[in-house]
Amino acid sequence: MERRAALFEYLLRLGDSCLVLGHRVSEWCGHAPELEEDIALANVALDLTGQADMLLGYAARIEGKGRDADALAFLRDAWDFRNLLLCERANGDFAHTIVRQFLFDAWQAELYAALARSTDAGLAGIAAKGVKEAQYHLRHSGEWVVRLGDGTDESHARAQAALDEFWPFTGEMFETDAVATELIAAGIAPDMTPVEAAWMRTVDDVLAQATLARPKSGWMQTGGSKGRHGEELGHLLATMQFLPRAYPGAKW
Amino acid sequence: MVNAAATLDDPRVVLAWEALAGVMDPEVPVLSVVDLGIVRAVRADASGIAIDLTPTYTGCPATAAIRLDVENAIEAAGLGRPRIALVNAPAWTTDWIGPDAREKLRAYGIAPPAGKASELKAALFAEDPVLACPRCGSTDTRLTGRFGSTACKSLHACNACAEPFEHFKCI
């Protein structure tokens, strides 16, 4: 695969995951279980949306077809999205939202730390900025996983159920296909083996403190990076994209 | 003041830095964009002034407003409309906020960044730094929320004087 095309594809994967999860988390705004958590989730959503803006803006410049971050965010349909399937999953209860966020934050913090050493200066710059935000998010979601898992019987059961449900979506985070292989060879993307090992250490450390059991890694979901998504993404996009599609060129 | 020395011989650069020192952060109006360390370079050439800005947080909603304020301030100083470039690297850090600016924050009621980001422990659950209440000075304070009213702040309360306060997060 041609390197520029591979980088565009890779940036879409990173940017779409931020955008879709950022939108999901923003759905909690005004609905979180306590005021401080409402503010926290809105802040996390804002950071993720900001990262998506940078990543998709860079993707658009690499593509060089006159599109911008907004065009990529609002004028593509589900099959053109490259996000991790984990990111599009519905919020469910608070435990589901927190466990999903923890699995993602732990991955993103390790990936950004590695990407900060990318041979591609544009990507390295975004990652070096994003890693500070990702580590801060991880601390927040990690503390909540411990509080829920090591909390009441009810919160423990809900956190374990969320973990069991989302675990098969974690394999996708570490897939290495032709796009990744091309970029790894050029030093643009990192080898995912050490990233996965570091992620697993973080997960095991937090789950042990949370008295939660790590599910067995068996069959894993896949397809997000190829544009094969669940029905839930279409519903999310319908909400997120309605305004710019109904009123093309609308300005704030 | 990054890159200031290299072009200090051009008086327009000095005037530009002076103008920038008067552009306040819309969310934290006691700090200028220079205090915050988000002005990374100012250059002058035949076509006018060029300024490199770096965002604090990727999603900071104030970035667009700050950019416009910077453009207007440079123009008002008689230096023409500047060319603005947003640069990501090196990533912004609160280590660029100097002692004077930290004191301005404290006097405004916001606890300044505690310590240096570059010396923070990377451990996931590393202990939080001890914060002094910006109102009474007591170090008997507690964290009430890791996130606050803007991306750059967290929420705290003082056990001594019972006042809530914000902390400019150390990143």
Observed structural traits:
heterodimer; A: 252 residues; mainly alpha; Ferritin; 10 helices; globular; B: 171 residues; alpha/beta; GMP Synthetase, Chain A, domain 3; 2 domains; four-stranded mixed β-sheet; 4 helices; 22% helix
Characterize the structure shown.
- The complex is a heterodimer of chains A (252) and B (171).
- With 252 residues, chain A is an all-alpha fold.
- Helices cover 67% and strands 0% of the residues of chain A.
- Chain A has one domain: Ferritin, core subunit, four-helix bundle (Ferritin).
- Chain A is built from ten helices and no strands.
- In chain A, helix 1 packs across helix 8, helix 5 packs antiparallel against helix 6 and helix 5 packs antiparallel against helix 9.
- Chain A is globular and about 55 Å long.
- Chain B is α/β, with parallel strands linked by helices and 171 residues long.
- Chain B has two domains: 82 residues, GMP Synthetase, Chain A, domain 3, CATH 3.30.300; 72 residues, no CATH class.
- Chain B is elongated, with a radius of gyration of 18 Å.
- Chain B starts with 10 loop residues before the first helix and ends with a strand.
- At the A-B interface, helix 2, helix 6 and helix 9 of A face loops of B.
